[in-house]
Specification:
about 475 residues; alpha/beta; Rossmann fold; Arc Repressor Mutant, subunit A; five-stranded parallel sheet; five-stranded mixed sheet
Length: about 475
């Protein structure tokens, strides 16, 4: 069953159904459902699918390209040794037929080099696109390559008609995959996986999400045991600097600025750090955030680990891999779930879910049609001034700042939450004189009658409302 992706499907289908030749680029991390999306958009339209090979030579890629094309055309294409010759053989085999040409895991086909990109552009423009009903779809899981070496390359700059950056499911789509589960389990799955369809599908198979997590993440043959290495090495090989940056951010759930991150990861603050951070952010593993009142050129930028599954791996799996591989039946996850560290992690994971749904929260609160800038707001402590970390606030064009406090807990929230939020609100009022500060509580869990009756919060928004 294909779920969601209606906008992305429509955009791809529009390119496929256009009479004029079109080029589409689809990228996103592995397991995110790129190939499934492309197949859904193509439907019954004739299509040729070629997939690159991981860590293989150019000659192996060309041979595999010709072999895959031969099997789908049901006739042997001649053996050649250059990409130009291979693409010319493809053009000859297609003859005048309309066709969607899908080059999947394109960064592997190209061996991360510019040669295939340049040759493909030339053959597409002079041969392949000259027949009606042709669409070229380039699909890749290494975002930095797909954006810098393809989308923004001199060969394809301005020539790509449709670009789709595919990301994890929103919580409403995750709920559709877990349609027989209660909201609490749906939210758990979203916190663990970030809505990566393959991971949600795995968690859907057990009697509970917790039981599936134990089977797939804490048993010797579980799917997630090797997943970190599979995902990370396919993106970055064995470059230790990437690993050190991820570990540093895993130990700092609320993020680090550039200087703190360089020091923690023991990496020179100059050199290749900017490129490393760009690559990690393009891959979707980390995110950068600036205070909502600062422009994009500000140096007040923090980096944080935004891939929920990688965060979970470092928090609870990495240090236990030896025990997991040695003990086949022990319910490790059950013991983890009752620790303070797990409750703290889930609290942060819930905040990240809310931050990802910030535009939906704005709609629920009724100001989605008003212009606003949203994001975190933070200030380091200074002499006589207390530091503050606000994870989600909206600086609205109607002179209102909506301050969101996000909590996931089992015990009812008492009056202490009002004091906690009011301290942040006062700092905002001081910093933004004349603005109205509107406190909102986004919660998954009970709220005491005292808090509800206080009238302090403009709105107490329950997380399940994000399903609507």
């Amino acid at each position: 069953m294909f779920i969601g992706r209606s906008e992305e499907t429509a955009r791809l289908r529009g390119a496929i159904e256009a009479r004029a030749p079109k080029i589409a680029l689809v990228y996103g991390r592995r397991r995110i459902g790129k190939t499934a999306l492309i197949r859904q958009a193509i439907g019954r339209t004739p299509a040729l699918f070629i997939e690159g090979l991981e860590n293989q030579s150019t000659q192996a890629q060309i041979a595999s390209f010709l072999d895959q094309a031969s099997r789908q055309f049901r006739r042997k294409l001649p053996a050649v040794t250059t990409w130009q010759a291979a693409l010319m053989e493809l053009d000859a085999a297609l003859a005048k037929r309309p066709m969607v040409i899908v080059l999947d895991e394109f960064q592997w086909l190209a061996n991360y080099r510019q040669e295939l990109v340049s040759v493909l552009k030339m053959v597409w423009e002079t041969r392949l696109s000259r027949k009606p009903g042709r669409t070229l779809i380039l699909c890749g899981s290494i975002a930095s390559f797909m954006t810098t070496k393809v989308l923004n390359s001199s060969a394809f700059y301005g020539r790509v008609d449709v670009t789709v950056h595919l990301q994890g499911f929103r919580i409403a789509e995750t709920a559709r995959m877990l349609r027989r589960r209660g909201f609490s389990e749906v939210l758990d799955a979203q916190c663990f996986t970030g809505g990566v369809p393959k991971y949600v599908e795995l968690l859907s198979k057990g009697s509970s999400i917790a039981q599936s997590m134990n089977e797939e993440a804490f048993r010797p043959h579980g799917y997630f045991i090797q997943e970190y290495e599979r995902i990370f090495t396919s993106h970055f090989g064995w470059n230790d600097e990437f690993q050190r940056l991820i570990r540093a951010l895993a130990a700092a759930p609320y993020g680090l600025n550039r200087r703190e991150l360089a020091a923690s990861a023991k990496i020179d603050e100059g050199g290749m750090l900017s490129q490393r951070l760009y690559d990690l952010e393009a891959a979707g593993f980390i995110s950068s955030q600036r205070p909502f009142d600062k422009g994009h050129e500000t140096r007040l930028i923090r980096y944080y680990l935004s891939d929920p599954w990688i965060s979970f791996y470092h928090a609870f799996m990495r240090s236990r891999l030896k025990a997991i591989r040695e003990e086949d039946r022990k319910d490790i996850f059950q013991s983890i779930r009752h620790t303070g560290a797990f409750r703290s992690w889930m609290g942060r994971a819930f905040e990240l879910v809310c931050m990802r749904h910030s535009s939906q929260i704005a709609q629920i609160l009724g100001f989605g049609s008003i212009g606003y800038d949203s994001g975190p707001w933070f200030r380091a402590p200074r002499k006589g001034i207390t530091g503050v970390q606000i994870d989600l606030a909206y600086d609205r064009d109607d002179k209102v700042i909506t301050l969101c406090e996000m909590k996931r807990q089992n015990a009812p929230l008492g009056r202490a939450i009002i004091h906690e939020v009011e301290r942040k609100a006062e700092l905002l009022r001081t910093e933004f004189s004349g603005r109205t500060v509107q406190p909102v509580l986004v919660v998954d869990g009970p709220v005491s009658r005292e808090v509800e009756a206080s009238g302090y919060f403009f709105r107490i928004l329950h997380a399940s409302e994000m399903l609507e």
